[in-house]
Amino acid sequence: MLGSRAVLLLGLLLLPRTARGRAVPESSDPAWARCQQLSQKLCTLAWSAHPPMGHVDLPREEGDDETINDVPHIQCEDGCDPQGLRDNSESCLQRIHQGLAFYEKLLDSDIFTGESLLPGGPVNQLHSSLLGLRQLLQPEGHPWETEQTPSLSPSQPWQRPLLRLKILRSLKAFVAVAARVFAHGAATLSP
To answer: Does the predicted TM-score (pTM) go above 0.85?
Structure first.
């Protein structure tokens, strides 16, 4: 599984800058440049939402898997590669939309209770940016269903710092790939 993600990331890093094409029909084409800006902001916020702790080996705990083991990943079959975006970007954009909805629910959970939830705090800003990008991706007239939703059971206060760290690590990886997809879209697919 890591191999397919690595290949996708490598493919996105080596994207040609001159290819032109339409992602989806004109009426449902996302605002690639705006998506790029928001996804870059999300990357910055995801990195600043939790103070750096150096390298931490996160132990696998029983019962912990239900919260974050089923996190969405952008994979090769999602069509987020350059050719897939040129041919039809809808499946890739839908996958990114689903991932954003998934993380939005996690940020709304008790895991992040008390974690800088003031209006200007980093988790609140991260949540607002996730919501803004998700709404920007939502096609007018036909809302996408969210397939993956986190199965959340109430967490204990002592579990929350570890769960936050795991969720934010996963979110960082997800938004990094999404930001690269939007950077390619803005550079090559925008009118």
So the answer is: no
